[in-house]
Write a structure and sequence with these properties.
This protein has 717 residues and is α+β, with helices and mostly antiparallel strands. It folds into four domains: 51-182, Beta-Lactamase, CATH 3.30.450; 192-266; 293-501, MFS general substrate transporter like domains (Growth Hormone, Chain: A); 519-717, MFS general substrate transporter like domains (Growth Hormone, Chain: A), CATH 1.20.1250.20. The chain is 71% helix and 6% strand. The chain has 25 helices and seven strands. The strands form two sheets. It has a five-stranded antiparallel β-sheet. A two-stranded antiparallel ribbon has the order 6-7. Helix 10 (315-336) packs parallel to helix 15 (443-475). The chain starts with a helix and ends in an 8-residue tail after the last helix.
Length: 717
């Protein structure tokens, strides 16, 4: 006879296996889908390369004719010239030529396969172009736009200048196309991506060969002999140079054209794509592993329902729900948050008379300022409110703000909406801090839950940024905001399934009975102990946290590393923090507080000083790993120690966490300028050496005097 205890245990095992099976299936389905999207992005790049080859040749032909006396405004045969681009593979490509003042001269559109209303499609494309030109005229049309890629609402385009013999601008050529339908991946299989990729490159070479063959046939029809055509070899060499997949174009005596495939190019592209695919697989594994943290929380809910309990949760359940909620929300946010500047640039959005670079930086700057300011207000006004209600307010602001961003066309509206999202983000961060505080019964719980919260943040940034770049290639950067809004809506709707909102709110209500008003920023800064701990820990912590955002991409560009190496640096940084850092938090919990803080700061210094070894990819990856571990271990250690300071404020941890984070956000504002100096030191290692030494000194000072600031005790077991 099976005992009741064994029956319950077997049921628990079956539930776990069922959840694991669901997670594995969903992760694999997501892997198949996102791999297709990644393949589509690379295929789209090849298609765009070939379209640019046609466009550049067309511009060259037009400019040659102008130099021999033709006028652009009265160019006989211009439409026929443009059809070499618009007729490419029934893609519905539009080609528009304007004069120097961007007044339209002519427009030619290719037939779009399976387009039921071709005329409406063409008009729609022209409407977007007129809107773009209107914005350009208001901001003075930018010069030097040869082969400049732009985004125009639902369409993408490439702009070329048409110059005369003296370099003066005669007009512009616009190539317009719909990226969403330019590449078909419906028949692509995950198992054949590499071979399909090679076939796609070979097709690009075949297209070039066919195009040149048509040119040769046309010349021979006009009476040119093969000897005269041979004299045009320099021209055809230029055609080959425009398509990186073509190594050489040869013309036989009978006029037959042969385009040679550049095998080195193919192998490099395949290697790059496979590395890209491996990164995607790793990201999908991270997603699957992170969702396994839901199991204790879901089991808590099942146990509560079966035992008919009013309130039930476990430490593992709370920790798992905090980590997963943080992971999914930050993934959603970072799918779109970093790309506001690109949206501003691609759509030529400018604010007042500011430059393009300054205008494009405003949305993110305003959003971060909103997060900083509102965070301090929220922790004072809403300190004792139901966390689920605050989560609802955060979700509504983030959903509405991001969905509105998906259809925005005004730079002022985009900035306003990003500020609105920043307010929602501030509410969300306070909710996370409240969950850590309410779900903790000791200082050790605070550190472990905050480690989970920070791990979710690291995983969200790693996964969200990677997914954002892939999705943007498919749906456009404005489309990323749509994904952010939808994901947040789904997460908020499902959160009662795995977050113990009721239990934590009951605990909050019990604590509120005798709770005074929340501690303020002024009170913290007036306290000598708080002030010194902020100087010695909050400053180095947040400088280290900005390594990935403000230093790594700039430094990698300066030392000439490939973008795929930068992607892997982001990846190993996130994985190191997500798993090694969190593991260290538990492993080193017996250390005295001041020693644990010093270890974290020394770790950050080591991550920077290791760059003195050299500029190879291996050295940079090692640096990224060390600073990833620093993030995963240092953030909960330094933040948790600050939140546990002061006996009278022990029940005000959410406010202390928010204040510490807000001051950290202020520190992060100066980091781009600091890292700009370090990254652009042009081989001079002295600035990095001085910086690393000063960074390490913070750890030395805290190791010596930390006992004066922190209560000297071991972490609870």
């Amino acid at each position: 006879m099976i005992r009741r205890k064994d029956k319950v245990k077997n049921t628990s095992v079956h539930i776990r296996l069922g959840i694991y099976a669901v997670i594995i299936i969903v992760t694999l389905l997501f892997l198949f889908w996102i791999s297709k999207m990644a393949y589509r992005n690379t295929a789209l790049e090849l298609e765009k390369e070939y379209i640019q080859t046609l466009a550049e040749e067309c511009v060259t032909n037009i400019e040659t004719s102008i130099r021999y006396g033709k006028e652009l405004s009265n160019y006989y045969g211009l439409d026929e010239e443009l059809r070499t681009i618009s007729g490419y593979q029934n893609q519905g490509i539009g080609v528009v030529v304007t004069d120097a003042d961007t007044e339209m001269i002519t427009a030619v559109f290719g037939d779009k396969e399976d387009e039921s209303n071709q005329t409406a499609y063409n008009k729609d494309m022209l409407t977007w172009l007129y809107a773009y030109l209107g914005q350009e005229q208001n901001a003075e049309f930018e010069k030097n736009v040869y082969a400049k890629e732009v985004s125009m609402g639902s369409y993408d385009g490439i702009i070329y200048e048409i110059s005369d013999s003296e370099g003066g601008i005669e007009g512009y050529l616009f190539v317009l196309y719909d990226s969403g339908t330019l590449v078909d991946v419906s028949d692509v299989s995950l198992l054949s991506l590499s071979s399909d990729y090679e076939k796609m490159i070979q097709q690009s070479v075949s297209n070039t060969q066919q195009h040149v063959q048509e040119e040769i046939d046309a010349l021979m029809d006009k009476g040119l002999g093969t000897s005269e055509i041979a004299e045009l070899s320099e021209h055809f060499d230029e055609v080959a140079a425009r398509n990186d997949a073509v190594s050489e174009i040869t013309i036989a005596n009978d006029g037959t054209v042969t385009a040679q495939l550049d095998l080195t190019y193919v192998h490099e592209k395949q290697k790059y794509f496979l590395m890209y695919l491996v990164a995607i697989i790793i990201i999908c594994i991270i997603i699957g592993v992170e969702f396994t943290n839901l199991i204790p929380a879901i089991l808590d809910k099942i146990h509560k329902r079966r035992q008919h309990k009013q309130s039930y949760y476990t430490k593992k359940g709370i920790g798992g729900s905090i980590r997963v909620l943080s992971f999914v929300m930050y993934t959603a946010i970072y799918i779109s948050m970093p790309y506001a500047a690109i949206v501003m640039r691609q759509n030529n959005m400018r604010v007042f008379s500011l430059s393009e670079s300054l205008s494009s930086s405003l949305p993110l700057t305003v959003e971060l300022i909103a997060v900083l300011v509102v965070s301090l207000i929220v922790q004072r006004i809403y300190a004792n409110k139901n966390p689920y209600v605050l989560m609802g307010a955060a979700a509504v602001m983030l959903i509405v703000g991001n969905l509105a961003c998906a259809g925005v066309s005004s730079p002022y509206m985009l900035i306003l909406l990003r500020m609105f999202c920043g307010i929602g983000f501030a509410f969300l961060k306070y909710v996370f801090n409240s969950l850590v505080s309410l779900g903790s019964d000791s200082d050790t719980d605070v550190k472990e839950h905050f480690a989970g919260l920070n791990a979710g943040l690291l995983g969200g940034i790693t996964v969200g940024s990677s997914l954002g770049s892939i999705l943007a290639g498919v749906f456009g950067y404005l489309g990323n905001y749509l994904f952010t809004g939808v994901i947040i809506l789904i997460v908020f709707a499902l959160s009662p399934i795995f977050v113990a909102w009721k239990e934590l709110n009951d605990k909050r209500a019990y604590q509120v009975v005798e709770t005074k008003q929340s501690i303020s920023l002024i009170e913290v800064l007036r306290n000598r102990q708080y002030r010194w701990v902020i100087i010695l820990t909050d400053i180095p912590l947040n400088i280290g946290l900005m390594y990935v955002v403000a230093f790594l991409p700039v430094y990698m560009g300066i030392i000439g590393q490939q973008s795929i190496v930068t992607s892997y640096a982001y990846l190993v940084n996130g994985i190191a923090g997500l798993y090694m850092g969190v593991w260290l938090v538990k492993r080193l919990k017996k250390l005295h507080k001041n020693k644990a803080v010093a270890v974290a700061i020394f770790m950050g210094a080591a991550g920077f000083l290791v760059l003195l070894i050299g500029k190879s990819a291996i050295v940079v990856l090692i640096s990224a790993v060390i600073l990833g571990v620093f993030d995963g271990f240092g953030t909960p250690t330094l933040t948790g120690n600050f939140a546990s300071m002061g006996e009278k404020n022990k029940d005000d941890k959410a406010a202390l966490l928010t204040i510490y984070g807000s001051i950290g956000s202020a520190v992060q504002i100066i980091c781009p300028a600091l890292y700009g100096v370090l990254a652009n030191s042009e081989g001079d290692m002295i600035p990095m050496t001085i910086f690393g030494a000063i960074y390490a000194m913070f750890g030395v000072v805290f190791l010596i005097f930390g006992a004066l600031f922190l209560k000297e005790e071991k972490y609870e077991r």
